[in-house]
Amino acid sequence: MTLTTSGATVQAAGSTYLVPGFEAAAFPVPTDLLVGEGWVPGSGGQRIDILDPATGGVLTSVADATIADGMAALDAAEAAAAGWAATPPRARAVILQRCFQAIVDNVDWLAQLIALENGKALPDARGEVLYAAEFFRWYAEEAVRINGDISVAPAGGNRIMVQYQPIGVSLLITPWNFPAAMATRKIAPALAAGCTCILKPAEETPLTALAVGEILRQAGVPAGVVNIINTSDPAGVCSAILRDRRTRKLSFTGSTEVGRILLREASYNVINCSMELGGNAPFLVLDDADLDAAIDGAMIAKMRNAGEACTAANRFYVQAGIYPAFVEKLVAKMGALKMGAGTDAASQCGAMINRAAIDKIETLVNDAVAKGASVRLGGKTPEGAGFFYPPSVLADVSLDADLLREEIFGPVAAVVKFTDVEDAVRMANDTEYGLAAYVYTENMKRGLQLAERLDYGMVALNRGLVSDPAAPFGGVKQSGLGREGGHHGLLEFTEAKYIAVNW
Ligand code: ADP
């Protein structure tokens, strides 16, 4: 993770950032902290520089929250909690619907902002904004459907009444790869359930979250219901919040490594955790697959966001009969993608987030090549400014290559040939991760049987994309705890209250 904190770029309080090229359409994005009533500069006076991954240059800076600022955000969230929980579900739903519409209305410049600070190509950025907005629409619809239940106790007489109540003040920690969608996937269900929250975005991409925060304010989210703090000290600030008894929920998306640390921090006050952690998605192509459909699916599963997604296909296991044709077509399709700055309208594969990401990709590619993989496309970091890596295909990757065990998080497809489907299932399941898996076969009976046998929270059958705000997104094993999206995602921000009644 690259973070530059430069004393030289300290700005005055109330500072904003206007997306270049959208001066008329966009509103100035606040670059301070959203705490309670509005934007505040923070108590430490420090700023965090935000880089453009396409050039390595500085875009602007944002306020750097201290532990005291984190506590102020918690005070604000706590102060607003009772009022928001008591707001009628329909009133909450109306506000969420307005948030949906406001994000959609601002899609163009929000996409440009994401492309600028994250580096992803504009079509990916635009897709993300619309996906991010959908969480508000879905949870606006869910806010009025938080149904409990009532039953007669098996022994008769007593009644078992169950009600879902807001869990309370929630800390939401998000990564840089989907700066809008990872925030709204947490904020929308939290608000629908009646919880107030503190969002802690990733240091690399806070501007999008800040823009969303201002949109929510303008759409009528009351003061203190959503607070946003960026900090160069996530460990210190988040631990302080988690060790305060007023915090009742942690929803985290990020690496398994940081997830483990946060589970420990959450253990002090036994805080309820939803954890969306790392993945290592296998993509199985059987001999009877529709080759063109499998290639289209592979391109989405591998290249959406240039591979910087926890659901990104990391390992392609392709059956021997279809293997040569699959590799040939994949190379052709990947080779036709235009790499370039995300903000360049022609780009299809944007920049990686930072230098460390490039270093990791290079290390994994070099290891695979040293162990016998054949480079069929790309495989070399280009010269010049910015954090770019080209679409790459490695065929005949050997089973001991590190890249089959570790998420590469970049535009590199590793392809392995198999003969026996049982071997493919065994290799696919041979990982401590279990987020998403993909299967292509025209035999639906076999496809569904495989889907049941893959140790993953999500299996895409003849599809290259699993994400859907209406579906429960999440992993098994070390890929996480809990689900986001769908009705499940709402329940994560509630507690089941059992009332034992006799009337
Ligand atoms: P990545 O490797 O994708 O950057 P991380 O897991 O490092 O993912 O980061 C995801 C989010 O977790 C970011 O918002 C980051 O600031 C935050 N984070 C990192 N370390 C900690 C920590 N010790 N405590 C709380 N949050 C953290």
TrEMBL record:
SUPFAM superfamilies: ALDH-like. It comes from Ancylobacter vacuolatus. Its EC number is 1.2.1.16, 1.2.1.20, 1.2.1.79. It comes from the Bacteria. Belongs to the aldehyde dehydrogenase family. This is Succinate-semialdehyde dehydrogenase/glutarate-semialdehyde dehydrogenase. InterPro entries: Ald_DH/histidinol_DH, Ald_DH_C, Ald_DH_CS_GLU, Ald_DH_N, Aldehyde_DH_dom, Aldehyde_DH_Superfamily. Keywords: Oxidoreductase. It is an enzyme of class 1 (oxidoreductase). One of its GO terms (molecular function) is succinate-semialdehyde dehydrogenase (NADP+) activity. The keyword Oxidoreductase applies. The keyword Cytoplasm does not apply. Residues 39-499 form the Aldehyde dehydrogenase domain.
